[in-house]
Amino acid sequence: GQLVVLESTTYPGTTREVLLPALEGTGLKVGKDFFLCFSPERVDPGNQEWKTKNTPKVIGGVTPACTEVGQAVYERFIDTMVAVSSTEAAEMVKILENTFRAVNIALVNEVALIADRLDVDVWEVIEAASTKPFGFMKFTPGPGLGGHCIPVDPHYLAWKMRTLNYRTRFIELASEINAEMPEFVVGKVRAALNARQKAVNGARILVLGVAYKRDVDDVRESPALDIIGLLAADGAHVEYHDPFVPELAEDGAHMSSVALTDQALAEADAVVIVTDHTDIDYARVLEQAAVLVDARHVVAALLDGSSSQVDRRGSRTGAWIVKGGP
Description:
This protein is an alpha/beta fold.
């Protein structure tokens, strides 16, 4: 028989409720003529340690025979297989994994918003909390969620549960908090420019990084897109630099990555670090930028006194506005 495996993330029940009837409608019998499984994709783009082969793979079949056949096939090129009792369980595994990350990022993002209002360094707090050897898992705040999985997948579960008259309030609130972060970052740009008696309208703003995460070329759901859109709506002249994304087309607008020269940095009224690509010279960015907003906390190491060539006047390690702010 033929093995059919769904790997794309979806709500629990999709394999049995959608795929199974379509396949059985051909007159074939599951577990005999064909074998149907769900085995969620587990990929971390840019991760050099965990690849397809050594990342444990979950699988669940419509029948035990389906699970057995699917596992036998994957074991040829996957080191570790994790069999679960059903396709629904396997589907729920992936939803849990991504929702867990989205919710915890939302929590630490809200803590960042709280700490900002209390004038407390949220990164210092997180680093200290992460020294606890039990009961704490480190997550860090940022400009918002991106990628084709984490921002989207929890909504599959939320939709499914609404059909069962249940509202996933916690998950939906987490999505709202994460969606607010681009506006928070733009607010920091406004505050920094205001401190220099400069309006956002007409300002030249250079965004560093538009990919949704470090060292990848994927811009799907990237918070940089929202940040650029919000700044442009305020009348700013926005340019970006991203070594992985030479061209950017969004909502009918086309942009090209500019070279990260001393002139580009010096001419910008504000520089905003949105994605912390590893091959950007952040010491040079810190030296040349008049105003620097760091949404990734990437320049903090340059402000600890270890680098004498960096100009630290007006720079603050724990602030979102690292340089040139109020």
